[in-house]
# Entry
Amino acid sequence: MTQTSSSPEPLRGLLARRGRELGKTLTALAAEAGLARTYLYDLANGSARDPSVRTLVRLAGALQVSPLLLFRYYADLQGSAAFGAFPLATNRAVNPRDPEDIAAFNADVTTPDHAVVSPGESFRKIWELQNLGSRPWRGRRVQRVDGEYAIARRRPDGGLEAVQEAYLASLYREIALPDTLPGQPVHIAVDFAAPKESCTVASIWRMTDADGVPCFGPSFIFFALVTVMAQ
# Structure
């Protein structure tokens, strides 16, 4: 799905609040996340280059929060937007290079967010997008941008532990989008295989043009998010 939300707590505020709640300094949190203290300070102040998915997962583990909370700040996952000017994921977007090119996310057709799947289970995720602009979509593709990292594993004490050895596998990292005329909806189907251990895991995708350039900026993403659990 995509997400809409009210403005998130500033990242600096989130780090300070979780530090107080956990009784840890920013230096200690940086050490637990495997980050340089100066980098975490710069990240909190919006002066650092945007982090990779791997960094967000490690930082979420140190903060004991879901990495999805941090993904709200960096939805493009590519380090292209400055913190503080970065928009949240949205259900409707306009191509910044062509105001007549407009997309909307309509629905998760299958596998809603937080659906429970069995370890190793294969499943198909289908999203429905719609061309709301006046330009036909030709040569478009959807591209995986999450780096294939699991989100988090819940520890016996109830805390969240970041994991990087498990991921939501997909056969392809790019899929061709059928030509879509103005006003038409289009279904995007991706086959996934869940990891063989209990965890919460996601896969994040976005639309690109024939040259691989993102069509709608960093805020227009859609994702599969499942909980892997023996049933």
